[in-house]
Design brief:
The structure holds 2 protein chains of 2 kinds. By secondary structure, chain A is an all-alpha fold. Chain A is built from 8 helices and 2 strands. Classes of the chains: A mainly alpha, B alpha+beta.
Chain lengths: ~280, ~140
């Protein structure tokens, strides 16, 4: 059974296995198909139209399914690999071990934002950035530049306390847990972390940065924590709703999976701790 | 519409509004406690409001910002852009209007901006001189 661990507690060998699997997925071309899929949904999910991956109730089950598919692709390369999660309330500076040259590498240099250290630096020749809207073929970051502070534990707790999963109009204007976690409203959790990392992570092609998966694995864990805290709260909407994926509707692009089938993560993986 | 024709059209509409006082660069980045939507009077144009989904969208703009030509104008596309198109040096920047009337672009997709011009300026800063290219 897959166990997703806090990235800060990974051994050096576990980090190496994870990085090696990422590089191999990149080499085969499969990695970039995930970037393309994410960007296509980012550009087509709109507040007033059809919306599946973002700014909608299915933000959480969609990304859960997306991460499972990605994790399975890594495990086809190395069955021992699981997606780690990044608790950005705890590891909240550019000096965290997450950003060490032996793991994800650090922030970008000031001149052009280029990440110059670590396995994903363009100089290593193994991480070409090709699915992008500008001509720059290298991984970029600007840690803490777009916004100075990552969310705090207290801010996370204030969102986890919200009892209602989501509300009409089921988009970026909604009240409730999902939209506050996504960050279009309120203290801003998920969106703010993308902005804090900067570079490709701030764009529609954000999965170009491997930290995308660690960020979303933590968002996914927050969903599981919210479920544990509110056992009587359910995914909404339950009934057919225009432009929105309700509980038993199938989600694009898979068309064979519903939010209802994504509610229990323990069918697919567990966490080192959910406390 | 070809790139050239679209540029010419944008240039023509932009000429009409030369002299209008347009909005400043209202950035609501990362936006924890700051208001996410600019005061409506700061929205471009003298009509005093922007209509969501493009019925009464922001006014056109055309300017050179940090050495880049940025242009924006209402469009009659598929409506996914809020009925508004933005270009940087003639290449389209994918933009989207949020339900609260703020804007994002594909370059800055997780932070909101008060106007299409603000989102274009933010993209210029982020691009650091590199060209927009259609996504492969």
């Amino acid at each position: 059974m897959t166990v997703r661990k806090n990235q800060a507690s990974l051994t050096a060998a576990e980090k190496r296995s994870f990085v090696d699997a990422l590089l191999e997925l990149k080499r085969t071309g499969q990695y970039d198909t995930f970037v393309t899929t994410h960007n296509a949904f980012i550009m087509s999910d709109t507040d007033s139209g059809d919306r599946v991956g973002h700014r909608s109730p299915s933000f959480l089950p969609w990304h859960r399914r997306f991460l499972i598919q990605f994790e399975q692709a890594l495990q086809a390369i190395d069955p021992a690999v699981a997606l780690p999660y990044w608790d950005w309330t705890a590891d909240r500076t550019a000096s965290a071990s997450l950003w060490a040259p032996g793991f994800l590498g650090g922030t970008g240099r000031s001149r052009d934002g280029q990440v110059t250290e670590g396995p994903f630096a363009v100089g290593g020749g193994r991480w070409p950035v090709t699915v992008t809207v500008d001509g720059r073929g290298f991984l970029r970051r600007a840690l803490g530049s777009g916004v100075p502070q990552l969310p705090t534990r207290a801010e996370v707790d204030s969102v986890l306390a919200m009892p209602t999963y989501d509300n009409a109009p089921w988009n970026s204007a909604s009240d409730g847990f999902r939209n506050h976690l996504e960050g279009w409203r309120g203290v801003n959790l998920h969106n703010r972390v993308h902005v804090w990392v900067g570079g490709q992570m701030a764009t529609g092609a954000s999965p170009n940065d491997p930290v995308f998966w660690l960020h979303h694995a933590f968002i996914d864990r927050l969903w599981a924590q919210w479920q544990a805290r509110h056992p009587r709260s359910a995914y909404l909407p339950a009934g057919a709703t225009r432009n929105v994926v309700s509980l038993n509707d199938v989600m694009r692009p898979w068309n064979d999976v519903t939010p209802a089938e994504m509610l229990d993560h323990t069918k697919f993986y567990t966490f080192d701790t959910l406390a | 519409m070809s790139q050239l024709t679209r540029r010419r059209a944008l240039g023509a509409t932009a000429t009409v509004v030369t002299g209008l006082v347009l909005t400043g660069f209202a950035r609501t980045a990362g936006a924890s406690s700051e208001p996410r939507t600019a005061d409506p009077k700061h929205n471009a144009g003298h009509e005093g409001h922007t209509g969501y989904a493009g019925h009464e969208g922001p006014q056109p703009f055309s300017e050179t910002y940090r050495g880049r030509r940025i242009e924006g104008a209402p469009s009659h596309g598929d409506g996914h852009h809020g009925g508004y198109a933005v270009q940087i040096d003639g290449e389209e920047l994918h933009v989207m209007q949020n339900a609260d009337s703020t804007w994002v672009s594909v370059i800055n997709h997780y932070e909101t901006f008060a106007t299409p011009r603000a989102v274009a300026r933010a993209a210029v800063i982020e691009l650091q001189g590199s060209e927009l290219v259609p996504l492969t």
